[in-house]
Amino acid sequence: MAVRALPAMDVQELYRSKLMSAQDAARLLVADSDVAMGMAVAEPPALLAAIARRVETEDLSALRLWYFHSMTHAASSVLRRDLLDRVRPHCMFLSSVERGLMKNDPAHCDELIEFVPTAFSASPQLLREDVALDACVTMVSPMGKHGYFTFGTANDYTSVAARSARKLIVEVNPLMPRVFGESPLHVSEIDAIVEKRSPLITVKDHAAAPEDEAIARIVAEMIDDGACLQMGIGNLPAAVCSRLRSRRDLGIHTELLTPALAGLMQRGAVTNRRKATFPGRTVFTFAMGDTAFYEWLDDNQAIYSLPVDIVNDPRHIAKNDNVVSVNATLQVDLSGACNSEHMMGHQYSGSGGQLDFVRGANASKGGISIIACRSTAKDGTVSRIVPSLEGPVTTPRNDVHWIVTEFGAANLRGKSLRQRAEAMIALAHPHFRDELARSL
């Protein structure tokens, strides 16, 4: 995106003219309105707390909140159970926050959360064209000397929502890394600025289970020198990355940037030399990790942030050769169709960017799409390989390439339904194979 030419101005004076308290900024919101919220690490704690205080006093109601992946700041403010009669979450990807609300109040699940099925890549268009956003609230990095902020860890849909909303309110946190990329934000585009130094939300991977270690070994063997990686979050992708340290000339084009992927850059396994798009740079749309990771991101010219409708566009992904996409799922049926978002009769997460990266990897020259899962759930009492899915199809059988469990890998491309079923049964836990065979 080209940065628009701006008239000469004193950016420091403009900054000071828009600086106000969180309480005053929250007063810019009006009842019966649509508000986009920065996601994950970019949740603005001071702003959200001030908005919640207005809701508490019933000075603000009928607030429709649009977002992906909420975390602790939203959970302690605008997504509190006692406020949800006045705040209506329009959530496009459920996290533990929404799952906790629904678990604690199962009789009112559908009343508490409006789940909006949306591909992550489609969310910018949705918020730009289909939702009349009254405001956008998000955290940003500090302003540079020329008047530009960055969206830090969260370009995603936020950079688009920020410019689509009638009012843009930002919370400047000196701990938010300045990240190079598209959509730098000029002070002239902002309506209100709040300053708040607060620790960034951190996420750490836990030790991988034996099943995840087995899956990681299989997946890592499928990744050659020069591959362009997309990895999700969690123990399994981190375990895969730990086995790629001796690879050479890897690239990264990923929805989510994590410390595990950053570690491959720091060790020299990632050079991004062979990428056709943004050669020499790691591309991502949002990031989560620990404090050391955020410090590494800051002012790092090897990193490039883009809106999610670009990063997750299968056509853009496929411009790079040898893309390897690694994603997780909750259930796979015998035809290879995957349910990655619904569990035990309820929405569990969302479709996110899984299908986009499956299709992007499939269209990439030499690319492979891998969907991985443990063969069982609930301490081995439930098979994740099933005759038919219990929820929506996140990745259709037509698009699935490789499925991996701790018992092996199966390439489903070109296989008939019978051949697929045989391959999937071989990936199931031995305790369930006979039962699955009888279901044919």
UniProtKB/TrEMBL annotation:
Protein name: Acetyl-CoA hydrolase/transferase
Family in the record: Belongs to the acetyl-CoA hydrolase/transferase family.
Superkingdom of the source species: Bacteria
Span of domain Acetyl-CoA hydrolase/transferase N-terminal: 12-197
GO molecular function: acetate CoA-transferase activity; hydrolase activity
Entry-linked Gene3D superfamilies: 4-hydroxybutyrate coenzyme like domains, Acetyl-CoA hydrolase/transferase C-terminal domain, Glutaconate Coenzyme A-transferase
GO biological-process terms attached to the record: acetate metabolic process
The species this protein was found in: Novosphingobium pentaromativorans US6-1
InterPro entries: AcetylCoA_hyd_C, AcetylCoA_hyd_C_sf, ActCoA_hydro, ActCoA_hydro_N, NagB/RpiA_transferase-like
Limits of the Acetyl-CoA hydrolase/transferase C-terminal domain: 289-438
Keywords annotated in UniProt: Hydrolase, Transferase
